[in-house]
Amino acid sequence: MSETDHDSSIDRREAIRRVTALLGGVALVGGSSLVAACERAQRGVGAAGAGGAGAGTFSAQDVALLDEVAETILPETKTPGAKAAHVGAFMALMVTDTYEDREQQIFRAGMRQLEQASFMAAKPAQRLALLERLDREQKAYMDGKADDRPAHYFRLMKELTLLGYFTSEIGCTQAQRYRETPGRFDPCVPYAPGETAWAGHA
Amino acid sequence: MSTPKVAATILTRNRRDLLRQSLDAVLGQTRPVDHLIVVDNESSDGTVDMLASEFPHVTVVALPENQGATGGFYEAIAAGCRTDADWLWLMDDDSIARPTALAELLAAIERADGAAPPVLMCSRVEWRDGRPHMMNRPVVQRRGPARLAGAVRSELLPVRAATWVSLLISRQAVERSGMPPRHFFYQADDIEYTARVLFLCASALNSTWLLLRSATEVWPGGLGSSSGELGHNLMDHHFRVGAEGTIEGLDDKYYNGRRPTGFYIPRYRNLVGDKRPYLRGFGYQGGASRQGWSRAVAELGVGGAFKDAMAQPGPWSIGATAFGEMLPNHANRVTIDASKKDKWGLPVLAIDCATGENERLMRRDMMNDMAETLEAAGMKNVRTYDNACFPGMGIHEMGTARMGRDPRTSVLNAHNQVWDAANVFVTDGACMASSACQNPSLTYMALTARAADFAVSELKRNNL
């Protein structure tokens, strides 16, 4: 293992640790085994994609598809949507760097299914209807499945979209409230419906 | 004082032609040397034969095996001490002395105005073009205005260290202080530091690693090992167990800003009359907050309304994780693993450590007590968890050089002094005799400050 490989594996491990901390301990379905992710990183199987069956780089078309999926899940409202936060590229990175081979295959097979359903050619309302159907499907499957069964691809896409968006600069500072430095803390203040949450901090 | 005698010694390896020049330069000194010795580091270029035919009066020490620069100079000093020389003049085969080099060194001894006569003199070493040779610049003693004033008067710089290139050392000093270590690395890259007092505060395992690898010629198990406890009784805290629940209502309340800290419940088990089937106890670290966006992962929903709802705070939840004490156990230990090296080529620690029955029994209370507490306080959806824990996860490693009252059963005394070496102090987590259940860093800082205060007062009393 070269010096560079060694250092980048530490960076990646540190990055994964921080992302998990951001989630406040909420376990992700995909890449859920932090230890496995670290082992992957140490084997040097990463963004370069020289590794197992599920590995490989994402093309610009792949990222564009993921951007549109993310934008349909978290569209522009009075705040910017997931596409503005480059969530497609984030998903590609997370899948390549932290997913097990089996999860990578599930994720990619899911992308092929969306392509076959002509997701990119569909109108926004059609896209939303399709993803609502997939969301019900994944929820029913995930709530009923045994722990050792693989995750549904749309659960993987949805959680990466949420993680990517709500930890992005746009998600933290525009969709939520963000205070960069610690300062005054009021433990109990009135809350009016509609006010946004405090964003987490690394 | 009679005229001092000088033995010149040259260390060589496979540089026959350079050695000739070096020898000619020594033989051409305005102040002749009294002895001339060449130490040959297993040359294969016929150096020894050349010496026999061209320099028959030179004493040759032919080493059967290359011992490197430091091993070679060790032999050179030993050979010099076998003569009647008062001073040993050391150099490599690529050092070409100016004709007056030795005369100037000897004259400088007379000029030096320190309280005691000098024990080591060095020349200014120049490259062929007359500029200072950077690799052979001495380490200059910069402290002490009086010493520097004396240096100006005598036109001599006080030095702390110099290289083996025209180095004049006193035979008396060698006899008083002993021979230099022969295992040092080539090129004077190694420097031996000495100190009256040494503080180890390198984090528990690194301090013990240093002790295990120090003074093994005196104590085979390492510095501070005479009790048999060095490296033993490794501890950590065990955690990742507790309970959480939700709080109903309070939807019209929130907080403002970044929470500085959570809550802490100090240990209450096995105290004031409480008696459990295990020893010692645990504390709780917890917090309450409104849920954030991550609740959205498990909820049904996509689209704009879903997004805006998930950007708002969710229901209140509260939880706490227990931090438990781990008992010291002689079997939990670290040793040097000579078969595995780190990136600097140094042997690493082998760690053999596990939690035991006491911790297993304690974890039941660590989990269930918080569930009872939350339920009694009116929380809903109370859920317990035990995500398992092994030593190292708490990153509060401590022990392995424990403090104690008896040198037969501990590594350090009450002042963090190594029983076996009073001028060595260990003041990090290695000193801990038990782990308690609190975060330990402040304790280490307090112990360090206390030990430093003790060391200073002992130094002032000349007890160290």
List strands and helices in order, with pairings.
The complex is a heterodimer of chains A (about 200) and B (about 475).
Chain A: H1 3-22, H2 34-43, H3 60-73, H4 87-98, H5 101-116, H6 124-144, H7 153-166, H8 169-175, E1 186-190
Chain B: E1 6-12, H1 16-27, E2 35-41, H2 47-54, E3 59-63, H3 68-81, E4 87-92, H4 101-111, E5 120-122, E6 139-140, H5 145-154, E7 159-161, E8 167-170, H6 171-177, E9 198-200, H7 204-212, E10 241-247, E11 253-256, E12 263-265, E13 282-290, H8 304-310, E14 316-324, E15 333-341, E16 347-352, H9 357-376, E17 380-386, E18 417-418, E19 421-426, H10 441-460
Indicate the multimeric state: heterodimer
Count of helix runs of chain A: 8
Biggest sheet of chain A: strands, sense, closure?
A: none
Question: What is the SS-derived class of chain B?
Answer: alpha+beta
- Please summarize the sheet with the most strands of chain B: 6 strands, mixed
* Unreliable residue runs of chain A: 1-10, 32-39, 41-55
Radius of gyration of chain A (Å): 18 Å
| Average pLDDT number of chain A | 80
Judging from the principal axes of the Cα atoms, what is the shape of chain B? elongated
Note the gap between the termini of chain B.
37 Å
How many extended strands of chain B? 19
Which chains have the largest interface? Answer: A-B, 50 and 30 residues
Structural class of chain A: mainly alpha
Number of strands of chain A: 1
Secondary-structure element sequence of chain B? EHEHEHEHEEHEEHEHEEEEHEEEHEEEH
Helix content of chain B: 25-40%
Give the C-alpha Rg of chain B.
34 Å
**Strand percent estimate of chain B:** 15-25%
Give the integer mean of the pLDDT values of chain B: 93
